[in-house]
Amino acid sequence: MGYSQVAVLASAQTQLRPAWNDAQHIDLISAVVGNVFKGTGLTLDDVDFVIDSGSDVLDGRSISNCGFLGALGAHHKEEARVEEDGLWAALYGVNKIRSGASSVGLIVAYSKPSESDVDLYWSSMVDPFYQRPVGFGQKAALGIQAQRYLAAHGITDRALADVVARRWAAAAANDKVAMGKAPDADAVLGSGEAALPLTNLMISRPVDGAVAVLLCDGDIARRSGRPPVYVTGMGTSLETHSFAARSVNRLDSVEKAAAMACGKAGWASGAAADVVEISGSSVIGELLTLEGLGLAAAGRGIDAAMDDKVNRSGGALPADPIMATGLVRLAEAAKQLAAPARAGLAGPAKALVHGTGGVAMQTNCAFTLEV
Predict the structure, then answer these.
(1) What is the distance between the alpha carbons of residues 83 and 362, in angstroms, rounded to a whole number?
(2) For residue 25, which of 267, 281, 291, 341 sits 20 to 30 Å off, Cα-Cα?
(3) 170, 311 in Cβ contact below 8 A?
(4) pLDDT at residue 3, as a whole number
(5) For 232-370, which CATH superfamily applies?
């Protein structure tokens, strides 16, 4: 007996803002859950299970999702929590439908880092005895990662700034990302030091927001009247917890996740994708991801980063809702495949999606989508 086909039927997201001062978590969640069913022919009654992604640390209380079950539409339904980026929740949901146990699943991810100290959130993930007391955390790890990469491959700060400016310009064209004037390369270079050699704008910007994705089996997708966007492959892997013990100038877990996803889809590599939506904790993280996905040779991620098919939504650098970033990438890629004309594309057929989590991108997940 073969696996059931699984499609991304619809998605909805709030605007991604530096701070949603006039809305609580429950408001953001309610907004996306209420909107995701529009035009699908389905209602909340058709949903078999709900999987949500959030962080107790960022939310400031244990089992924080218990306060959001009503907003999630999970009352009297099977509900699960994945305390990792929402792309892992989508992986869980796809497998539930593929098993034949369910037909429709609702995946919701949310975050309000504006209400937390994000640096403390990241430091909570490192060793508490030797690393945390000396201030090692996300920024320090990303700075070391960048120093090693630039020293090995001779990439200039200006080239990095050009990539960042390109991402912000793409996000500016996306009404789902709140911002003022998009920074140019000079503004990126002058944005202040985050962790040498990275400036503040070379690291992903934490934002508040929520996203919901509706998954269903192939039969329901075909009856919906919408162009089905099928999940054809998935893969996940992680680096060792010890940053010092990881490979230098490569993300092994990205390579393994991509190989798993592409292998399931029957792709030779990630280069087969027409649309690429990736997450990156920093601009160097983006380059390493592009190399790990097979879109560029080692040290040449900078070339792939300037390709029009990469992060047409802007990606994570201008808007990183932390627990929802990968699920946003999935939603954006699916929309580009389902409605290419609206995205300014000429009939793309395949998309590659990537999500990440942990200090210096310790965990990585990849999806392949096809129409």
Answers:
(1) 14
(2) 281
(3) yes
(4) 65
(5) Thiolase/Chalcone synthase (3.40.47.10)
Q: How many helices (H) and strands (E) does the chain have?
A: 13, 11
Where along the chain do its domains lie?
Answer: 6-116+206-223, 118-202, 232-370
Note the pLDDT tens digit of each residue in 317-326: 999 999 999 9
Phi, psi (degrees; rounded to nearest 5) at 239: -80, 165
DSSP for 6-21 reads: EEEEEEEE--BBS--T
CATH architecture of 6-116+206-223: 3-Layer(aba) Sandwich (3.40)
Which of 203, 363, 179 has the alpha carbon at shortest distance from 286? 203
Given this chain, do its domains 6-116+206-223 and 232-370 carry the same CATH topology?
yes
Task: Tokens 């529009």: give the residue.
Answer: 38
pLDDT at 18 over 60: yes
Reported as a single tens digit per residue, the pLDDT across 277-299 is 999 999 999 999 999 999 999 99
Phi-psi region of 288 (alpha: psi -120 to 50; beta: other; left: phi over 0): alpha
pLDDT of 332 higher than 60: yes
Element (DSSP H or E) covering residue 214: strand 209-217
Q: How many Cα atoms sit within 13 Å of 108 on the Cβ side?
A: 34
Which of residues 63 and 186 earns the better pLDDT score?
186
Band (231; pLDDT cuts 50, 70, 90): very high
Q: How many angstroms separate the first and last alpha carbons of the chain?
A: 23
Say if CB 102 and CB 48 are below 8 A apart.
Answer: yes
Return the residue matching tokens 């300014």: 344
Look at residues 317, 302, 313 and name the one whose alpha carbon lies nearest to residue 275.
313
Mean local confidence (pLDDT), 87-101: 96
Q: How far apart are CA 243 and CA 105, in angstroms?
A: 36
Please, what sign has the CA dihedral across residues 142, 333, 371, 33?
A: positive
**pLDDT class for 300, splitting at 50, 70, 90?**
very high
